[in-house]
Amino acid sequence: MATNFLTYQLEQKFHGKEYITRDELYEFYRLYEPDLSPATFSWRIHNLKEKNILQSVKRNFYTLMGKKLFQPITSPKLKALGIKVTKEFPAANSCVWSTRWLNEWTIHQSGRFLTVVEAEASATESVFYFLKDANYKNVFLNPTEDIIEKYIYEQEETIIVKTLLTKAPIQQQKHLSVPTLEKILVDLFIDKKLYVPFQGGELINIFNTVYKNYGINITKMLRYAKRRGKGEVMIEFITKNTLLKELVD
Asked: Span 195-208, mean pLDDT?
């Protein structure tokens, strides 16, 4: 049966439905393929996800891709920095991003920004000295609370070099890696001192605005929060304060 026909029928069947369970999808496909095997069905789901028709929100729950995929626009300056780090340390996982991206989701528009460079533990210090030697200004390595309070937001643009947690959720964007939405949200929640302008009501607004506009994988988010030792605390924050509580069991 033609793939386009099934995709159309799928979208018609579940249009407007917030979430689709794996069982609902299986019953849908069995209407057209009565002898559908579990293995073939798993491939069907994988294929839909590859084509950005379907997205996981948690285990055995999906949503049709009515929301945008997170593909941040990297400025030439940020892109150049990220590519330099990748080329200099090709064996080390790393990612870059800018808090400028947050202005899309915040109520108050910040005028001071952080460029965050994360690299795996074995390379973090080397990345810091590499950037210093390359004449980048206002570069700080894993800054303490005292350093953050005194210096971090004194300049319009500051570079923070941090340790990238193993298996942190990052994504490829051409020649560099950037964090996923799930990672950004978790880091904003946990690293309160570093991201102090984005706390309180602003943080809640960021979570809700992101949820309304982008697909979020809650399983990926909470797995990362748990790896950072804040899984239960983050669940409590989500369920008490944000629209993402719909995704949490």
From this structure: 96
